[in-house]
Design a protein that fits this description.
The protein has about 130 residues and is α+β, with helices and mostly antiparallel strands. It has five helices and five strands.
């Protein structure tokens, strides 16, 4: 299959034999950054690249979707203290839990015992990140 290429904003864009252009992810990311900063307009990109408005918006969505899969590595680790009150084995049969308390910094969450908590650590971490 024969291919040729052209330049757009300093990026090499391959054109396959059928005329299909292959826009690299780095190019889409560049265009999104320029659009978001206001340096480019959608109309300008449409004219410069000879593409439709919907394709320009698709590039933006592609970059957002790709970025959602990335996780940022935080240098600061967040630790949460979980304290379980002591109780005698004899109290287990008669004890009842009326609520769940989660504390982080100056924030205290009191949840009903029936609150569906699959992962209470996520709640604690979310609270700590906002304090």
């Amino acid at each position: 299959m024969e291919t040729h290429s052209f330049q757009a904003y300093g990026f090499t864009i391959e054109v396959h034999a059928g005329g299909r252009r292959v826009w690299p992810p780095s190019f889409k990311d560049f265009v999104k950054q320029k659009l978001d900063s206001g340096e480019f307009t959608v109309e300008q990109v449409m004219a410069d690249c000879n593409v439709s408005k919907s394709l320009v918006y698709k590039w933006r969505a592609d970059v957002r979707r790709a970025n959602l899969g990335r996780t940022e590595v935080r240098e600061e680790r967040v630790f949460s203290e979980i304290v379980v009150a002591d109780f005698d084995d004899t109290d287990v049969a008669t004890s009842t839990i009326s609520h769940i308390e989660l504390r982080a910094g100056s924030v205290e969450l009191i949840l009903p015992e029936t609150f569906p908590i699959d992962d209470p650590i996520k709640i604690v971490l979310a609270v700590e990140l906002r304090t």
